[in-house]
Specification:
6-stranded mixed beta barrel, mainly beta, 30 strands, single chain, 409 residues
């Protein structure tokens, strides 16, 4: 997921003054609209019709300033005219990313909502390869600002997004707690306190990012009290245009979200390149992703810069992660061919002689055709044992699972 953060952060800041969002409207001026979404690998995915014809899947992203189409062949098929070309250096500071501004694109969810004239960005190439990491077809990113005409409720339990007409909205449901936030360049930021260790309290500014399939990401060199805890392990924390981005993964003691506390949160730590201009961070120290946000139901009001939270069914569930050392992508026509993209040194996967570009054929004795990418990742996550401190100690158990995988070169 760091792949989206590093590259899109560079892109959207450049386009901020150049584009505008028309926004969605409710069909027949309905006061309330319910939209089902898919929740896959901790991504919220909505199906939209492009120019009234072609259904496409977009990741709903509160961390993106603008809507992005990653498949240029689609806009070319519709003979979309591009107003301007942008060239941006990618997250590796070497790879050049090219995108085009397309205006007046029609997007709609039939019988629900429609946007008659959206400005979107079209990538020249599919730099992000969303489908390999989500395990399903994904065609781009939908900025949450596209729904700014509404108060948006995200129910992670039911996989339902409800849009309320702002002029008629009243908070009638119980137990929702208002959380102070700030809005800057179409993004929502949350000021709070977190404890990496029990005896340290850091005041931090975090981006609320539904486009991130992780619990919490912190930038280690933005605050003296933000650093990987002693039991953190070296890990790939995502993909950038120049390859995998390395960091650490561990558990922090706790974080406060308004009046709600979450402890033992799996946290990714990334040390930013100090030679780069970090102004694009706008003072933030990291982000809150879906894996943590899904412990709540959430109401978003962009125009008033307000959110409300209420615990969901998973509020008390522990955070788990995969210590196998494997990074797997989904390929093939049905995204059920699984290829090892990377193996961490000294990990159980490496000790089991699993290598980059191996294809996984069987897992736990079953052909992988019976697994989705999310299923496979859950297998490794659940093969954990925890000590009383909440740290995973199940390397041996994970290694046995990995040994059951048939692979070839």
């Amino acid at each position: 997921m760091i792949r989206f953060l590093c590259t899109l952060g560079c892109v959207v800041s450049l386009f901020y003054a150049a584009t505008a969002q028309g926004g969605f409207r409710a069909v027949n001026n309905r006061k309330q609209v319910e939209i089902p979404f898919e929740y896959v690998n901790d991504f919220i995915i909505l199906t939209l019709k492009f120019n009234g014809v072609l259904p496409l899947k977009f990741i709903f992203d509160t961390g993106a300033e603008h809507t992005i189409l990653s498949k240029r062949e689609i806009s070319d098929l519709f003979k979309v005219q591009y107003e301007r070309e942008f060239r941006v250096t990618g997250s590796d500071m070497k790879t050049e990313l090219v995108a085009y501004l397309a205006r007046n694109i029609e997007l709609d969810i039939p019988e629900k909502v429609f946007a008659p004239a959206e400005d979107i960005l079209v990538l020249q190439e599919d730099y992000f390869r969303f489908e390999e990491y989500a395990g399903i077809d994904v065609h781009g990113i939908l900025s949450a600002m596209a729904f700014s005409n509404f108060v948006v409720k995200i129910n992670y339990d039911r996989h339902i997004m409800t849009l309320y007409d702002r002029d008629h909205f009243e908070l009638r449901e119980k137990d929702f707690v208002p959380i102070p936030v700030e809005l800057y360049r179409n993004k929502i930021y949350f000021n709070t306190r977190l404890q990496v260790l029990p005896d340290s309290v850091a005041a931090v500014k975090l981006l609320i990012d539904t486009g991130a399939g992780l619990p919490l990401l912190l930038f280690s060199n933005t605050h003296p009290l933000i650093y990987p805890p002693g039991k953190a392990i070296v890990s790939n924390i995502g993909m950038g245009l120049g390859g995998y981005i390395e960091g650490f993964i561990g558990r922090i003691h706790g974080i406060q979200l308004g009046g709600f506390g979450q402890s033992g949160v799996i946290t990714y730590f990334h040390n930013l390149d100090s030679t780069r201009n970090l102004e694009y961070l706008t003072g933030r120290h990291g982000l809150l992703g879906n894996t943590l946000l899904s412990h709540f139901q959430m109401l978003l009001d962009y125009q008033s810069a307000r959110i409300w939270l209420r615990p969901s069914r998973t509020y008390k569930e522990a955070f788990v992660y995969d210590r196998s050392g494997l990074s797997i992508i989904a390929t093939g026509r049905r995204f059920n061919d699984y290829i090892v993209q990377n193996v961490l040194p000294n990990s159980p996967a490496e000790k089991a002689d699993i290598r980059r570009d191996d294809q996984i054929l069987r897992l736990r004795g079953l052909p992988t055709i019976f697994y989705s990418l999310a299923d496979m990742q859950r297998v490794f996550q659940k093969n954990q044992e925890k000590n009383p401190g909440g740290h995973s100690t199940g390397d041996q158990k994970i290694r046995k699972t990995i040994v059951c995988i048939e692979h070839f070169r």
